[in-house]
Amino acid sequence: MCMEKNRQIIISGLISNHNQKPFLGSIYINTKTGLIERVSKTNPNRKVDYSFPKSCLIFPGMGDVHIHAREDQTGRQKYKEEYKTTGDAALNGGCVHISAMPNTPKPLTTKSDLAWHRKRVEKIAHPVSILNYIGIDSKTKPLGKPGEHFYKLYFGKSVGDLSVIYAGELDKILERYKGHNISFHVEYEPIVQASSGGDTHSDRRPRECVNEGLRLLLPLICKYKIKAKLCHWSLGGDSFNLIAQARKEGAHIELEVSPLHLLFDRSMTDKNPELWTKIQMNPAVQTPRDRKDLIEGLRNGFIQYLATDHASHTEEEKFSAFAQFKDEFPGKSNVEIAEIIKSQNKKLYLQTCKQNGMSGAPWLDTYALVAVHLMKKHKFTPQDIARVTAYNPGRFVNPYLKRQFPKQNFGKGFGLIEKGYIGSLTVLNTREKTLVKREDLKTKAGWSPLEDWVMPGKVAAVFISGVRIK
């Protein structure tokens, strides 16, 4: 009755924004508008609705700007994931907004495609805000003026049919998209093709394919004043120098890094090739030095986003290299065949694990756990975590909220615990630990690369527009 009378809830605890150290305070959220009305360091004059101990940090609602929901008009890949289960996994991982990539079986490239996806998102009415990228290839054109939509271009082949192969083709395309916001997958396909005989995925998609793609792309980003975001960045070293120089010359370039590239590198897969069935991804993991550079780049602000590239392929697809033995084991699944071979011929098993399977893995369920891992293992401050999981993702999606959600009021948007921003919060307990168990996952894929890992931290609560959802 109190909440209904005051149309307001009060949430108290350690408040963690990107621009100041955590402080004990109270957040007042209007339950009718869903917006923050006040943030105070003083004690409220009435009983608070939710009070969190000092073991918890209250962050602005976290957001993942790079996920794959796999749902489209064809329905062909709903067995992997769909909007509802993607939203459920995001919520489980502490995210309040996610942005879905367009490389579905029917790529999202036209106004009618976008309308279908927006109607579908509206229909399921998931509490997590789901936004959509628009795909680019040689035949597409912008769907509006710069600033109205955000796009994705695959400079190189990955999963799906959207791809641009050569720099000359890319030049002609980007001329049409001058001044637009485009996120890029960067792997130069001719080098990938020339490396197809490599022993592992890291050899078949080597560092050179990313660096060469970058060298070809950067001048075009400058030439056409693209607001660029480079997705799931996998390298440090020379690539950082190239990007830093382009930024000095006026290029607008931001970077994502995935949990997979922060947690794994090729020294681990060389030691244990079995890992490939869990962590094969485009682009591939590379050296320990690259991983160290990525961690440091995320911490010091060179990289702007922790973004998962959540790709919920099934275990059967991840073990697809074992399909070559189907005739020897009729009626058995790829996973079952792998287990049989592992017990009978470990050398053959490990060699097969190194062969190409499906690239991509589900990560949304563990998003916030990775954030706490970065705090505990790599000395990220709460401000660092707020910046890469909340403030920057909010800054990315906020300009597009009104167009993609015309019936909703987001106020100033996501990313800050301040007056006027949406009352969506992610509360993390940084002292408890979480055993990642299959039965606790919400992704439709039903598995995680971190299964059986004990991760520091726990999602203590998630609020969306002032309503506690988790």
Could you walk me through the main structural features you see in this protein, from its secondary elements to its overall organization?
The protein is 34% helix and 20% strand. The protein has 470 residues and is of the alpha/beta class. It folds into three domains: 2-59 and 411-438 and 445-468, Urease, subunit C, domain 1 (Roll), CATH 2.30.40.10; 62-313 and 362-399, Metal-dependent hydrolases (TIM Barrel); 320-356, no CATH class. Helix 4 packs parallel to helix 7. The longest helix has 17 residues, at 207-223.
Short description:
Helix content is 34%, strand content 20%. By secondary structure, the protein is of the alpha/beta class.
What is the CATH T-level topology of the largest domain?
TIM Barrel
Overall average pLDDT = 96
Shape: globular
The CATH architecture of the largest domain: Alpha-Beta Barrel
Uncertain parts: none
Query: Briefly, what CATH class of the largest domain?
Result: Alpha Beta
Structural class, please?
alpha/beta
Tell me the Rg in angstroms. 22 Å
Q: Which percent range describes the beta-strand content? A: 15-25%
- How many domain units? 3
Using DSSP, what is the number of strands?
Answer: 17
How far apart the termini lie comes to 21 Å
| CATH evolutionary superfamily of the largest domain | Metal-dependent hydrolases
